[in-house]
Amino acid sequence: MPDHIHIFIGMRPHQAVSSLIQNVKTESSRWIKNHGHSPNFAWQEGYGAFSYSRTHVPDVIHYIENQEAHHKKQSFLEEYQDMLKAFAIEYDDQYIFKEPV
């Protein structure tokens, strides 16, 4: 998708999500800029991380593989807010992702 990505990974309990996201953002930004794709590319500050049980793996993979069709019906921001609600995560609108400019 042009305005976000979904990454589905397995992690060990001692690994920090924040360190993983920092590494993904740093290395992908470097790659994008070094390969001339977008010299002004930048990630937004935040991210969302959700955990799923092993039994949900096929469903999550299917969802990610079909996200383009899904996003024809629902925007990224709508999807994200629905996920926050589904996981019973309280949030303040001022900290929610912003539409890319």
Characterization of this structure:
With 101 residues, the protein is an all-alpha fold. The chain has one domain. 42% of the residues lie in helices and 0% in strands. The chain is globular. It starts with 16 loop residues before the first helix and ends in a 15-residue tail after the last helix. The mean pLDDT is 86.
Summary, kept brief:
Helices cover 42% and strands 0% of the residues. The protein has helices at 17-34, 57-65, 67-70, 76-86. It is globular.
CA gyration radius, whole angstroms: 15 Å
Distance between the termini: 15 Å
Ranges where pLDDT stays below 50 over 5 or more residues in a row are none
How would you characterize the largest beta sheet? none
Helix content: 40-55%
Identify the quaternary structure here: single chain
Number of DSSP E strands: 0
Element-by-element helix/strand order = HHHH
Provide key terms for this protein.
globular, single chain, mainly alpha, 101 residues, 4 helices
Secondary-structure map:
Layout: H1 17-34, H2 57-65, H3 67-70, H4 76-86
